[in-house]
């Protein structure tokens, strides 16, 4: 006979939504202030969560409190420090995995992946962004102009 397992549906392994912000970290080699970043893990649930931070390249990062707990309806900040900023790592995508489980249970209830990238310079990025914005604005200005000339009787 099949044994009916009495388990709350939200506690099925691996299916619990994990709320973490941001889901992407960008470190800039030339900007010291970006070498330390914060992930915020939110716990909207009625029960406490345990968490664990795993990484594909643990040698590159220092994670302050890589394991811990979050009380119900609370959040916790996880500090991640890039500790090996070198040119050969530019553009390489590393992944962090945040695993959560219920305080009393061993298995992971849910997980979320966060990607981390090291870029050479925030200035370059800023320039690219500004050029992109300029192009978009010019494009919009043109299309608005066309619409106006078309709409006149």
Automatic annotation (TrEMBL):
One Pfam family in the UniProt entry: Motile_Sperm
Keyword Transmembrane helix attached: yes
Main localisation: endoplasmic reticulum
Domain MSP intervals: 17-141
Topology term for the membrane: Multi-pass membrane protein
SUPFAM superfamilies: PapD-like
Keyword Membrane: yes
Classification via Gene3D superfamilies: Immunoglobulins
GO cellular component terms given for this protein: endoplasmic reticulum membrane; Golgi membrane
Matching InterPro entries: Ig-like_fold, MOSPD1/3, MSP_dom, PapD-like_sf
Keyword tags: Endoplasmic reticulum, Golgi apparatus, Membrane, Transmembrane, Transmembrane helix
Superkingdom of origin organism: Eukaryota
Subcellular location: Endoplasmic reticulum membrane; Golgi apparatus membrane
Function: Plays a role in differentiation and/or proliferation of mesenchymal stem cells. Proposed to be involved in epithelial-to-mesenchymal transition (EMT). However, another study suggests that it is not required for EMT or stem cell self-renewal and acts during later stages of differentiation.
Name of the featured protein: Motile sperm domain-containing protein 1
Source species of the chain: Horornis vulcanius
Lineage of the species this protein comes from: Eukaryota, Metazoa, Chordata, Craniata, Vertebrata
Annotated gene: Mospd1
